[in-house]
Amino acid sequence: EVQLVESGGGLVQAGGSLRLSCAASEFSFDDVAIGWFRRAPGKDREGVGCISITEGSTYYTDSVKGRFIISSDNGKNTVYLQMNSLQPEDTGVYYCAAGPYAAPLKVMVTEHRFESWGQGTQVTVSS
After folding, report:
1. d(Cα 81, Cα 47) in Å, to the nearest integer?
2. Which residues, at least 6 apart from 3, have a Cβ–Cβ distance to it below 8 Å?
């Protein structure tokens, strides 16, 4: 099973930026998708976006489109989530997840179709 470790969370003021990292022990599938999710206090986990490691294609949910960017450094088995123009509603625990790229990225994110999950990193945006 792939081991995932997120890092880079912290406290930031509204309008600021943070970059999260997701380090994977390996990309053990032939075609891997890495997704980002978040859980706000008192709410269910929701998808943020996803990247196909082989193709480099990405998908973002409407709530973060235009503000967040997902990228990967395949040589380091690391995926990044660059978060810009952060707002208080972006506060939550952010998780990355890995799984075989077996469905459209939108479906994978919407249906949380991932097999391995990290422990999460806290992001707090103050107003």
Report:
1. 13
2. 24, 25, 116
For 92, left (φ over 0), alpha (ψ -120 to 50), or beta?
left
* Mean per-residue pLDDT, 28-55: 92
What is the rounded CA–CA span in Å between residue 6 and residue 120? 6
Please, are residues 77 and 24 in contact by the beta-carbon 8 Å criterion?
Answer: yes
Strand partners, 4: 24
Of the chain, the end-to-end C-alpha distance in Å amounts to 39
Task: Locate 41 and state its tokens.
Answer: 């206090």
Please write the tens of the pLDDT for every residue from 91-118.
999 999 999 999 999 999 999 999 999 9
